[in-house]
Amino acid sequence: MSNTALHAAAEAGDTAAIEKLLADGTPIDARDGSGATALLVATHANQVESAKALIEAGADVNAKDNIEDSPYLYAGARGHLEILKLTLAHGADLKSTNRYGGTALIPASERGHVETVRTLIEAGVDVDHVNKLHWTALLEAIILGDGGERHRQIVDLLVKAGADVNLADGKGVTPLQHARAGGYKAIEAILVAAGAH
Length: 197
Known about the structure:
The protein is mainly alpha-helical.
């Protein structure tokens, strides 16, 4: 039952219990029924201190659960910036992908996590990675975003990072066409200025 205790301590943010369990020999990357490690459980709950204790003790930031989420990917997708930065400092695999074939940058862009997107771009995540839906981070920010200020900032960050503004989706629809269809004038202006057609 020690795995359960470590997962429970991680979820509760009980770093003292985590440290004691690890000192007693509990395997740090043991899995629960969903395939999650204690670090992934801490990441789900955005328990920064738990995550920090586990990462500093050597937990695998790239260990995936049964649905292909890892602490790094989940922190990026959910905008859990402090945990994301810890995973990046401890060997996060920037090329790893989720069950949709997307990098952490794609869901971060879709969900409007501006600082997370900035952090992932600075870390070197491929801005033009195409997922299984044939969408890039730029396309997801436009198609699944709300056209508001956070998504405008994300489009701007992606464009400044060299995202291909003419990389179309699987049906041949470009980012500019999607922005126009959504009535997203500010995003349209950024794309046009960057040479989108």
